[in-house]
């Protein structure tokens, strides 16, 4: 093992080629892979239809497009700079916005019950905006699925075999010793850290989005280290869709109840608890969990779709 | 001026240099790494502006997941290192 490591340090790549080739039985060799890829690229890029489409664009229109693009970018920069220059200087008093800011800062703790006033703002005073943001994340996942999903309906069998068997297997990183050793130590710590950030969203900096992003990153490392087969055992498309749907509906119904009772000057009987305890701040803790679940599923869904064109295997 | 102000100005200058340098490099892998360092500098700037929530999110998303997605795309395009880029150039 020592000589191979020293050879690798000197820049000798043959060790890794050997390891890669020996771990891929049943997969065609590198030359057939290159030939297949060249054939498919030629069939798509150099077909008569795409040649006609490329040749049909005129030169003046292309230069006109460059000029209009640069001009519109300069105009946009000018407008944005003009708007920013109208804001008050950093730290100065702004009479119009000060009342709202004062109310949030002074009465934030007693009205929301959250020690972290930022979390109290985005999940209590301005919960409607956060609802829209979570839906935007869900929509982004759906759009990436529309663009990148590969199944029997939108691929012919030759392309599907090429992608599913050859490319995904060729790029498989699991079974690597370094990755598995590091993953064994790091993945539980990352998951614990992400769950800690989630659950303490109302007490310390963090909240739903940060905790969800950290948990998604932990899932990505686990998937790289242990391969897609082990992830497919618990993270299927059905599970992912159902828990994102459940999280978003819970958010909508809970906040809907609070809005309706608040707008009609009724009392919503959601306990605020003592500030500083973990079970306090009303609805902020459950909503943090819901947002964190949506973000984690979205991050890992993006990675899975980029790597192999589906969430949860086909 | 306080040391914090000079530090902030220094970080912003390096961020501008990073942003210009992403356009001037020849290899795509270098561009992705500079993008990741831009995100990390932004994370430090958020901490200096006293918003740790944004710092955690920027570190996890910008310097974490976004860079990973870029690298997966580069691998699929065949631009990840010199051997793959030569193969790509040899195909055309």
Provide tags for this entry:
heterodimer, A: 314 residues, mainly alpha, extended, B: mainly alpha, 86% helix, 0% strand, elongated
Structural notes for this entry:
The complex is a heterodimer of chains A (314) and B (92). By secondary structure, chain A is mainly alpha-helical. In chain A, helix 10 packs antiparallel against helix 11. Chain A is extended. The two termini of chain A are 38 Å apart. Chain B has one domain. In chain B, helix 1 packs antiparallel against helix 2 and helix 2 runs antiparallel to helix 3. The longest helix of chain B has 26 residues. Chain B is elongated, with a radius of gyration of 16 Å. The chains are: A mainly alpha (314), B mainly alpha (92).
The coarse silhouette of chain B is elongated
How much helical structure, as a percent, in the residues of chain A? over 70%
Shape of chain A: extended
- The total strand number of chain A stands at 0
Number of spatially distinct domains of chain B:
1
Question: What are the low-pLDDT stretches of chain B, counting only 5+ consecutive residues below 50?
Answer: none
Instruction: Give the N-terminus to C-terminus distance of chain B in angstroms.
Output: 57 Å
Question: Using DSSP, what is the number of strands of chain B?
Answer: 0
Radius of gyration of chain B: 16 Å
Largest sheet of chain A: none
Largest sheet of chain B: none
Q: What is the tally of helical segments of chain B?
A: 4
Amount of beta strand of chain B? under 5%
């Amino acid at each position: 093992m020592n000589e191979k490591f020293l050879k690798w340090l000197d820049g000798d790549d043959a060790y890794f080629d050997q390891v890669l080739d020996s771990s891929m039985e049943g997969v065609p060799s590198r030359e057939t892979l290159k030939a297949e890829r060249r054939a498919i690229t030629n069939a798509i890029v150099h077909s008569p239809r795409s040649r006609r489409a490329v040749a049909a664009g005129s030169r003046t229109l292309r230069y006109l497009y460059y000029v209009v693009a640069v001009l519109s970018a300069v105009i946009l920069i000018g407008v944005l700079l003009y708007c920013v220059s109208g804001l008050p200087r950093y730290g100065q008093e702004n009479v119009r916005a000060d009342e709202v800011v004062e109310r949030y800062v002074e009465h934030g703790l007693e009205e929301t019950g959250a020690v972290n006033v930022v979390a109290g703002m985005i999940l209590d005073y301005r919960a409607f905006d956060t609802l829209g943001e979570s839906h935007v994340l869900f929509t982004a996942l759906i759009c990436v699925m529309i663009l990148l999903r590969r199944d029997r309906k939108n691929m012919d069998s030759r392309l599907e075999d090429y992608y599913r068997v050859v490319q995904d297997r060729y790029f498989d990183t699991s079974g690597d010793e370094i990755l598995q050793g590091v993953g064994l130590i790091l993945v539980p710590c990352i998951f614990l850290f992400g769950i800690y950030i989630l659950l303490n969203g109302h007490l310390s900096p963090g909240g739903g989005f940060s905790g969800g992003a950290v948990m998604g990153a932990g899932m990505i490392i686990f998937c790289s280290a242990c391969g897609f087969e082990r992830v497919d055992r618990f993270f299927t498309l059905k599970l992912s869709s159902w828990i994102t749907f459940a999280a978003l509906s819970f958010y909508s119904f809970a906040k809907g109840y609070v809005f309706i009772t608040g707008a009609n000057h009724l009392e919503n009987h959601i306990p605020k608890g003592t500030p500083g305890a973990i079970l306090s701040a009303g609805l902020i803790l459950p909503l943090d969990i819901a947002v964190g679940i949506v973000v984690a599923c979205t991050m890992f869904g993006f990675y899975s779709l980029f790597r192999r064109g589906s969430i949860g295997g086909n | 001026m306080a040391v914090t102000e000079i530090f902030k100005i220094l970080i912003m200058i390096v961020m501008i240099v990073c942003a210009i340098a992403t356009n001037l490099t020849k290899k795509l892998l270098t561009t992705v790494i500079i993008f990741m360092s831009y995100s990390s500098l932004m994370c430090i700037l958020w901490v200096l502006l006293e918003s740790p929530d944004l710092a955690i999110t920027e570190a996890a998303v910008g310097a974490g997941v976004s860079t990973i997605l870029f690298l997966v795309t580069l691998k699929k395009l065949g631009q990840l290192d010199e051997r793959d880029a030569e193969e790509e150039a040899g195909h055309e």
